[in-house]
Fold these 4 entries.
Entry 1:
Amino acid sequence: MKYLFLLCMGLLFIGIPVNAQFNEKPILNLENEDKALLNWGYFLGFNQYDFKFNYKNDPGDTDILVSKSIGFNVGLIGEMRINEFLDLRFEPGLLYNARTLGFPGFTEEQDAIREVKSTYINFPLLIKASARRFGNWKPFLIGGASTSLNLGSNETALDDNSSGTFRMKKWVYNYELGFGIDFYLEYFKFTPSIRGVFAISDELVPDNDPNSPWTGNIDGLRTRGFFINFTFE
């Protein structure tokens, strides 16, 4: 419901005349927008990141807890037309988010809580598969692979959780899947979309002590993300 609210608020903020876009015989806007070989644009949006943990031994009721927050996305779009229904897209962007981890078994908050602030530079290469255009709107599916540079990873830090530093790997490899609708307005194309991002590489840098109470039982740590983007082309 939170994401639907953000999506609706974004549509209202932009002021899209949604009813006009779905008329049976609307006046067609930007009729040649998708015929160029190359298109450019930018996006703004929101994100929420989570972690998926794999454990060496069953943790029972002592799972690591993740407190999530809303972050933001901003980036550029480069699109190459393949045919009427397929486009190749490159969407480099800056993504910021913060997560708080709660580790069981500690009595002191300074030991139990780790705040993970992440600033990602994301490099996704995506295929956009669109339906046929209906008047001034066109639905699509999008998916592909991406790699992200985590500027707040602490990968090379000598300190670990025993000193209050949670470490992650600098480079993350993901796959992305989503859907959206292109709206052809009078002067530009506006696109709200929803996308999931799933890391396929292990991001954890274990503590120096193999029996660490923080990372000793973690076999793998992978990011899962959820994006709502608003694109202007």
Entry 2:
Amino acid sequence: MTLVESLKQTINIIEKALPDSVSMEEAAKTAHMSPAHLQKAFTVLTGMTVGEYIRKRRLTLAAEELTRGDRRVIDIALAFGYETPESFAKAFRRQHGIAPKEARNPGARLSCYNRLLIHVTLKGEKAMNYRIEEREEFQAVGIHREMSMVDNEQSRKIPKLWGEVNENGTSETLFKLNNGDLEGVLGVCVDKGNEMLDYWVATEFKGAVPKGFEQIKIPASKWAVFEVHGAMPDAMQKAWEQIFSEWFPSSNYEHAGTMDFEMYKKGDPMSETYYSEIWIPVK
């Protein structure tokens, strides 16, 4: 199943379930992707998380329901997944700018989010430098944090973790420990299910696990390795966007479903000449 087909399937299952919600696990199973990969691809290509899309669509349909008749606000709130009129009113006002009762007023202005239609434009305006590598399983050592993917929480916690390891010297220690073929520090996402992931800051290391660190095994895989040139985090974000919007739709490869990672070389990450890589397991 191609990336575009997977995202279309995701939108189909979400729309069929409305006004009920769909778990990330359900959506990922339908799309034949891991929850973490689905969340990343969906966010990069649509500009919103799966949860945000569901919330916007539910509040759009709730507004339509309010304008159609005299059904009580509390009944509509419960039907669309809100436990109290207050929580519904708060979410409704955030999207539409007015209270639910005001939606019934003649001429009330509402913010409508229609069903997403996935169209990928293959621009190819900027060359993508990549290579295909095959590697056996290897060991990395580092530290990790458990994070939720609900409401894209990991996108806020991952930069915070990098700030911590850069400030307390952990990243510098990992650069010194590195003795493998991958010369850099890795940012690794490990999908744990139930909309949770472990994010690792680690480095390839051969030998007994050093004190203060833990071990992670990176499974054997065929990898698509993309070059990233430029200052962080913009260069990395743009590279992911190009991979999902251009490379996957136009290549014969699919994401293999196991962990992917980013590799950061030594140097100034704020420099326009900084070099890093994205490693994606493919099949």
Entry 3:
Amino acid sequence: MLTDKFGRHINYLRLAVVDRCNLRCTYCMPENGLSWIKQNELMTDEEMLRLCSIFTELGVNKIRITGGEPFVRKNVIDLIGKISRLDGLNDLSITTNGLLTEQYIPKLKEFGIQSINLSLDTLNEERFFTITRRKSFDKVMKTLDRLLQYEIKVKINTVVMEGQNIEDIIPLVKLTRDLPADVRFIEEMPFNGNNTQASLKWNYSQIYHHIKNHFPDMEKISDPKGSTSYNYKIPGFAGDVGIIAAYTRSFCGDCNRVRITPSGVLRNCLYEDGGINLKDEIRTGKNNEELKNIIINSIHKKPKDGWEAEKLNLTPASLHQSMATIGG
């Protein structure tokens, strides 16, 4: 079992399979993209599968595939299939923007994928283009429809941005009236690749009161252990509403997750700078037991929360790195 120095059991791994993305969302990266990781610095499929196997042997039973946009990676569907067959893995899920996902949905169902997080910041086609700098709204909506058709649980992830999509909050909530999908509103974070300050106005409290004013009968429901979202139910609605305090970081106390970047860096916290590069350790010839010891020792040093991680590790420059390079 993986346990940090605060006694928290780590059973959730977020694996970023690629840093590249086919969108250019304003809150994630510059319009011209980023300096992408060189091919030989990315982990191979075999290295990713090996690390996932090691983590499941250490007690991790939930893995989320992220990016960048994971389906940009060549033959990623084969990698997902192999990961899905690992012993001890109970929950394999994916975060995607939906542009390339629709064609793979039957396979994902076959692999036992139970949940997909779908990034969607607006229900307005013009605002979608303004935010993502791409005309692909119809592809995302087709992916949403087909995921629901295949009865795969959908969580819509919406980054709330002042001056860009505030008018979409209530329509997105209303979307859950009839659709069995949850929507989760996320505080904007500084990881935008632009060296610009995220707006703090629309924090958890502001988002909550905005929704509550429109739906006064909205009620709190229980949050699963380790959940990053505060969850709510509107009576009669098919889906739920969640709010993720990603910047104010009020959910860190029972954190149960770690992440691996596309280049193989193990990060104990989103707000942590650097970490152990497991890919490099593999390529120097470390065996599985040696890798396990490295992982155990690293996770034991996991910071108490995101504020401590930022204070101890994060430089001003790395605070504004893109989420695509960190791992969604």
Entry 4:
Amino acid sequence: MYSIILVEDDHIQRDILKKMLVSTYKFVKIYEADSESTALDIIEKNDINMFLIDVNLKESSGLDLAMKIRDILKYEFRPIIFLTTHMEYITQAFKQTHCYDYILKPYDKNKVYTMLNKLILNENNNLNKYKDEDEDKEIVITLKSGIYVGINIDDIFFIEVKDKNCEVNTINDIYITNNISLKKIMKLINCEYIIQSHRAFAVNRNYICKIEKLDAKLSTVYFNKYPKTALLGYKFKNKVISEFKKGKVIIC
């Protein structure tokens, strides 16, 4: 799902723009923030496609927030659009943050839609295209027996390092690779939903159904409709749990 964060400390202005977005873009998830700290918390815990940021936040500058967003690797080139009543800040905004454009207040509905349509509709099409490509992506690995086998990445539950080999647990079977490291097979897979959970494990976040704490440093990862489990190490805990929660409603 395409996602937008709306950072505006004036709740009336924020509500006006949110209603415009919600009424037109049914497939878009809208996040709201009234401060830099709230915005950064949302941005770090979720995957944001577009940023609409008020230049004049009360507690901080929208330009400063944009600079912090640009320092996050995955957001280096994502579109930032500034909301402003003062044109004098825009030149500085373009130079410092490489923002895509700006929207003047009070909002002109037609101008807002003209600008956002270019970004949202095109980007949403690209997201669907990349999703389809990832779902069909296969890797070819050499088994310990010397046989070559093709594996659909989407079929992988988890990968476990055993001695100098990797055991790939999939929907269809368990495949033991011939003398390959976890680092190398992760590079070969190159998929955002296959994530490392332990020095000896990588898991498919899409199949995780439960994470259970074992002790201060280890947890057990359980998978939907699969009896075997993987380990989650302390070093990878925050990343894996964040990915597990992504897109879900968190009750407590």
